Amino acid sequence: MPPLDPRSASDPRELRYLEVIQETPDPILVFPGSPGDGGAVLSPLHLNPPGHSLLEDFPGGPSQEGLGAGGLPPSLEGPLRQLHGAILGNDGTGIPREDRIEVRNASGALRRLRLRGRRVGAFVIFRIVDETEALEAEREMRRRTELLEAVAHAAAILLSGPGRDGFDTVARVLGEAAGVSRVYNFVRIVDPPGSRIVRQTHEWCAPGIRPEIHNPALQHLDLDQVGAGPVLPFLERGVPWTTQVELVKDPALRALLASQDIQAVACFPYRVEGQWRGYIGMDDCLEARRWTEGEVEALQTAAILLGAAMEREAEQAQLREGQRLDSVGRLAGGMAHDFNNLLTVVRANLELVLLEEGDVDAEVAEGVQAALDATARGARLIQQLLAFARRQIVQPVPVEGNGLGEGFAGLLHRL
């Protein structure tokens, strides 16, 4: 391709445009200003250094020495040809035309380009603006909005109770909104206190992703032993942890993640009653993604909501247990009163038997006395039931087992 030479311009406007485009930081491509000049293949007459660099970034672009025989990369040739024809159809009025396209470069990355061209004398000059950063910002904003909507949906589900079905739905909603491969929940085994052992309780997988919920290594996972020691301070402080697997330094942890085809991972811890109790994890098995700040903030909110739901469920369980004990206590109190009335009648009649002097032989008297002792023990049992019903504090006291057994010996001997 011949070098861009402003001195070759005959029109003052052409001269000025050629001088400007050589110094502009945006890619500039100069095409012929008539349909016949370009031949069958649309090829630029000139392009500035940024334009040359841009075309090199796409398959079929120019080599370092100049344009290839194909002229333009195929992904750009069609849109530029269409705009070129539209500009020439303006009857030389110089009205600019523009279009936005999204194309993938040689490495497969998606790029957004704004093509703006106009006719200047014998040329059609295109300025190409790379709007890829704006595209990424839009995508991040859209994904964050989707995640926030998913978190709101998850909150509504968790408010109804964080049971297995509820969390499975939450995992699916969050996973689809985040575009990840897996979403799962690990809970910390709290016995013994200070334990750093976790187990997996739930998992959602995208279509085509291998589940790990039945992996025995994840049902009693000692985080210290698998090299996750540096991660623990984040989790214990309630701080999210994200990384790409290729950046993990500990070989044991990297091997564990790689064995599950994970390329990027994120952990969002949650707390129950002020203590770290587990984390929601997310895997990307398709690319070593970088987790954006918006994604992390939204997903950590979901983890906090899960912790709050689990804490509320524990409080409700305690309330239900208290109500159950209260009902049992009232029932026990009623039964104790009825039983006490029966024992009173039995004890009174036994005492009357002993009061009949001369009519009771020694063996019968011994049996009656044993029965009276049994009623006394029954009375003490009734007092314990009443204490339970009234939520009184019962102080246990030691008893002499041999003496207690001897009290039943006479009755057992007769049986």
Could you explain how this protein is built, in words?
The chain is of the alpha+beta class and 415 residues long. It contains ten helices and eleven strands. The chain has helices at residues 12-23, 49-56, 74-88, 132-159, 164-178, 232-236, 251-258, 293-355, 362-389, 401-414; strands at residues 28-32, 46-47, 97-104, 110-120, 123-130, 182-188, 197-205, 221-222, 241-244, 264-272, 275-284. Strands 8-7-6-11-10-9 form a six-stranded antiparallel sheet. Strands 2-1-5-4-3 form a five-stranded antiparallel sheet, with helices on both faces. Helix 4 (132-159) packs antiparallel against helix 5 (164-178), helix 4 (132-159) packs parallel to helix 8 (293-355) and helix 9 packs across helix 10. The chain is rod-shaped and about 150 Å long. It starts with 11 loop residues before the first helix and ends with a helix. 25% of the residues are buried.
- Distance linking N and C termini: 120 Å
Strand order, sheet with most strands: 8-7-6-11-10-9
Would you report the number of β strands?
A: 11
**Low-pLDDT residue intervals, each spanning 5 or more residues:** 64-70
Overall pLDDT level: 79
Q: How do the SSEs run, as a string of H and E?
A: HEEHHEEEHHEEEHEHEEHHH
What fraction strand? Answer: 15-25%
Helix content: 40-55%
Task: Work out the radius of gyration.
Answer: 42 Å
Helical run tally: 10
Shape label: rod-shaped
Major β-sheet annotation:
6 strands, antiparallel
Computed structural class? alpha+beta
